[in-house]
Amino acid sequence: MYLKGYAGRILYIDLTKRKYVSEPLREDLAKGYLGGSGLAAYLLWNLVNENTHPLSPENALVVATGPATGALAPSSGRFMVASKSPLTGVWGESHAGGSFGPQIKYAGYDAIVITGRSARPVSIIIDDDSVVFYDSSEIWGTNTRNSTNHIRDVFGKDFHVMTIGQAGENLVKYSSIMVDYYRALGRTGMGAVMGSKNLKAVAIRGSKPVEVYDPDKYIEIMEEFLRENTEGRWALPAQLSLGKYGTPSLVTVINAIGRLPTKNHWTGYWERADGISGDELLKYRVSRSSCFSCMIMCKHMTRVDGGVYEGSMSGGPEYETVVALGSNLLIDDIEAIIHMNMLCNLYGLDTISTGKVVSFVFEIYEKGIISDSDLGGIKPAWGSHEAAIELIKMITFRRGIGNLLAEGVARAAKAIGRGAEYYALHVKGLEVSAQDPRAQKSVGCTWAISVRGADHLRSLTTVDELGYRDIAAERFGLDKVEEVCDRLTEKYKGLIVKDQEDLFAVVDSVIMCKYGTMWPPMYYFDFIARLLKPLTGVEEFGDTRYLRLLGERIANLKRCFNLREGVGRESEVLPARFTQEPMPTGPSKGHKCDLEPMLREYYENRKWDYESGLPFEETLEDLGLGYVARELSKRFKLPRRDYGNTKAARHP
Amino acid sequence: MGLQSKHIVLDLDKCTGCRICELVCSFYKHKKFSPKMSAIRVYYNYELYRAEGFTVCSQCGYCVSHCPTGALAIVNGIVVINYEICSGCLTCVKTCPIGALITVDGRPFKCDLCFGNPYCAKYCTRGAIHVS
């Protein structure tokens, strides 16, 4: 193997022909796109085009790991899948933790590319070099727990399984893929892509090692990281919040700053938020768990004993779920939330999108846009978990209005009409996540520019949210600290969102968790550079400037992927609720989000032309994306910018 | 022999299934990352979030009496393999009553407690691993 840290091969599987072939990972790809999200972006750019229908056999599902996966790096147990999204029609990617990702590396692959469509339901069983197509007619129609159990019973308990539930089979546009029971590849409808390929599950185990270029140097950094995790600045805050509660610890914190989405994002503050807080959830927790190679231990399992929802048990719920199915619907019955979370996990539904679709129905019913005759007996009312549960089932099995709602909130609102669009909260078709741009202005920019739609995981910043002044000074300069750390001003938010997008492009390619990079903001480009060089032996990776270039290249490539689909600047808008309705209650009362100045600043920093919404030709060329510029210029006339004559002048 | 010996113990209630112990073991012993090359192995139930068991050498010395070449010996209560004498017959792997010895690159491999300062225990931030 030429490069250490990588497994060195990509596995291509064609489900139509039931053939598979593994090819070496090209060295220039590893160096130029890192792995994970970056590698997937390169592969997908070439595998699909603007004519590929997301649910057609031609669409490709890329399952990818990064160089850090399985190599002890901090919180590096994650992996990702990418595909053209059936929900948004543009770039779709989703990440999950657990132990599945490292097994891909140990089986000897950096990425697995799945194309085609099987004539019958099938599962792919990968055991090192062998790939078996396992007829899955028997488990088609079962939930994620049963299908995972079935595969592990048949092939062995040491197999790790990612599978879809009934929602994915029924091509619900926001269905998820469940990994090892409770870890979700939730967003952008990756489950439907698997469902469209008649692929029920992928199971994997591996026995090959991951090698390191400079073991002594590498373990030195790991020792340092261990000390940092046990005694460092962030050790105690992380243990007290994430370690103790997991992500639901956020509920109280976020409510206090008036950013807790409540009543279909009508406001950002809920008086009854204590009922769904981390402390409340703690009463139902039965066990805790970590992802592979992670010291944070933020995963927990909850179980309801007694009451209507007795016996409900599942991993989570996480913060996003608690909000989407809790405060967002004015439901403060934590047992009902645990039950709905379990249902979504079993059916394979994205809890964020599902929650926002249900709250959309509640609100348009309240406003009289739909009536009882449309709903088939359900009585939507704020706080009604019975109605929410019934809607979840209708969506999964596409019964009644569920058939329409399964298409996502954007398509459903368009079909319903009569002003329903106003209450459909989405960007590019992806339902909004549990933040509010009125209470944290940078979220507006994050949602608008995010390649997969209104989503927090591509560029959400925490320096402004929590006001880390020292970190803001370190990253953006002392003169900008005041504005950067003020979550209620739009100034410099385009800058920090662009910076965070580049960082996350690298983080998602390396692949590390957002914990450690988003919150606490511990690891930045410098840490990743120190980690990657002894791991891979690639000299360039040790240079933070090169990593920043890679971040920009990957972020640009994904944006260009959307542009090729014809989705550009005009899609970078926020729902009117956030830009026109002032926050009605809570600590952030009276605030609106003014997107335009942030977008302008973002485009300027991204070196894209704001007026046309297109990248400057030089920008792409400087980033080594000349092939992208050439393909795009078939459709658009890319603007040119006179930077001066030499390349050096453009990159001072 | 086994009564006075020290060996690694894993507290199943504290274990969270992160497998850092396995990674660290394989790395310090083989300079590679692979849970399959680790002297300690954890069986984790991903459905219930619970560690159900673990395998690691209990330093009982059963293999010592079966080694045909005398490559295994007890030093300060720890069973160690002398790889210069070891012929790679793997009798020890076959005879180990708890399956704690594994084969790595054709040779037997087992926990030697890192000579008193086990790295797996050091890296376990939950304090689930200790020497008893």
Count, helices of chain A: 29
Shape-level CATH architecture of chain B:
2-Layer Sandwich
The CATH class label of chain B is Alpha Beta
- What structural class results from the helix and strand content of chain B? alpha+beta
Question: Roughly what fraction of the amino acids of chain B lie in strands?
Answer: 25-35%
Strand order of the largest sheet of chain A: 2-1-6-3-4-5
Task: Draw up the topology in text.
The complex is a heterodimer of chains A (652) and B (132).
Chain A: E1 9-14, E2 19-24, H1 27-33, H2 36-47, E3 61-64, E4 79-84, E5 91-96, H3 100-106, E6 111-115, E7 122-127, E8 130-135, H4 144-155, E9 160-163, H5 166-169, E10 177-179, E11 183-185, H6 190-196, E12 199-205, E13 210-211, H7 215-231, H8 235-245, H9 250-256, H10 278-282, E14 285-289, E15 299-303, E16 313-315, H11 319-324, H12 334-347, H13 351-366, H14 372-375, H15 385-396, H16 402-405, H17 409-416, E17 426-427, E18 430-431, H18 441-449, H19 463-466, H20 469-476, H21 481-484, H22 493-510, H23 525-536, H24 544-564, H25 576-579, H26 595-606, E19 608-609, E20 614-615, H27 617-622, H28 626-632, H29 647-650
Parallel strand pairs in A: 1-6, 7-12
Antiparallel strand pairs in A: 1-2, 3-4, 3-6, 4-5, 7-8, 9-10, 9-12, 10-11, 14-15, 15-16, 17-18, 19-20
Helix pairs in contact in A: 2-22, 2-24, 7-23, 12-15, 18-22, 18-26, 22-24, 22-26
Chain B: E1 8-10, H1 20-30, E2 32-33, E3 41-45, E4 50-55, H2 62-66, E5 72-75, E6 78-81, H3 91-95, E7 102-104, E8 107-109, H4 119-123, E9 129-131
Antiparallel strand pairs in B: 1-9, 3-4, 5-6, 7-8
